[in-house]
Amino acid sequence: MRIDVITLFPDFVRQSAAVGVVGRAQQRKLLQVETWNPRDFTDDPHRTVDHRTFGGGPGMVLLIEPLRRTLQAVREVEAGPAHVVYLSPQGARLTQDRVSRLAAMPRLTLLCGRYEGVDERLLTHEVDEEISIGDYVLSGGELAAAVMIDAIGRLQDGALNDAQSAQQDSFSDGLLDCPHYSRPVQDAFGDVPAVLLSGDHAAIRRWRLKQALGRTWLRRPDLLARRSLDKESRALLDE
Ligand code: SAM
C-alpha cells in the first residue's frame, strides 16, 4: 500500500513513519509513505501557502492553489487512484472499522491542515472524506496522519510478526482485549490467573472471552450494544 501525505512538516511525518512496526512494514516493502510539501508548489519567493481568512477574525487559511497543484502532482504518480482524506476535527471519527476499510485500499492520500484549516472550496472539490482522530483540536493534521499511518500500517499483511495479534486486539471482534500477563508467575502485585498456566486451551479461550466481555461491559458498554456473540463464542460460554 502507498500513503502520500501532504504536509508543511514532512520531516515529522517521515520520522514518525520510520520507527517500529510501520518502519518495519516500509523496510519489508509492504507500505510506502511519501510526503509532499505544498510550499514546493508555489511561485512566489516567500513560498506562500496561507492567507488571512475572509470576513475578518483571527487565523490563516491554507490556500487553494498550492494544494491543488500538490494534489495534481500526487495523482500523476502512477500508483492507482488516490483516495483523498482530509484530517479534520470535523470529520467522521476514526474507528477500527474505518482503519480496516482504508487499510484495504491500494493507495491513500492524507491532507494535513494547519492554522484555521483549508479553504472550503478545495475540500469540496478535491477531498473524498474527512476523518477526525477525536473530539479535540490539534494544531495540525500531522499527528492525526501519524496515527492513521500507524493504525493502517500494522494491518498490512506481514507487518506484524504474529498475524494473529491484530485479530485479537481491542475492537477487531467488537470487544476490548482481555488482560495479559507474563513473568513472574508470582509477584508482590499479584499472581498470574491459574487458568492461563493450565494448558487447557478451551478453558483459556473461555476465560479470555469472559474477561473481554466483562471489560467491555464495564468500560465501553456502547460497544456491546452493537455486537452480537458469534456461534463459536456462544458455544464457548455454554460449555
Ligand atoms: N478551525 C478548525 C476547526 O475548528 O474545525 C481547526 C483547525 S486546527 C487548529 C488545524 C488542523 O489540525 C486542521 O486543519 C486539521 O488538519 C488538524 N486537526 C486538528 N484537530 C484534528 C483532529 N481532531 N483530527 C484530525 N485532524 C485534526
Globular, elongated, flat, extended or rod-shaped: what is the shape?
elongated
State the helical fraction.
25-40%
Helical/strand content category? alpha/beta
- Profile the largest sheet: 5 strands, parallel
Average pLDDT rating: 95
Tell me the series of helices and strands, N- to C-terminal: EHHEEEHEHEHEHHEEHHH
Give Rg in angstroms.
22 Å
CATH class descriptor name of the largest domain = Alpha Beta
**Which molecules are bound besides the chains?**
S-adenosylmethionine
Question: Order of strands across the widest beta sheet?
Answer: 2-1-6-5-7
What do these coordinates show?
It is a single chain. By secondary structure, the protein is α/β, with parallel strands linked by helices. It has helices spanning 10-16, 20-27, 64-76, 96-103, 120-126, 142-153, 163-168, 201-219, 221-225, 231-238; strands at residues 2-6, 32-36, 50-52, 60-62, 83-93, 107-112, 129-132, 186-187, 190-191. A 5-stranded parallel beta sheet has the order 2-1-6-5-7, with helices on both faces. It has a two-stranded antiparallel sheet with strand order 3-4. Bound molecules: S-adenosylmethionine. S-adenosylmethionine binds at residues 87-90, 112-114, 116-117, 132-134, 136-141, 144. Specifically methylates guanosine-37 in various tRNAs.
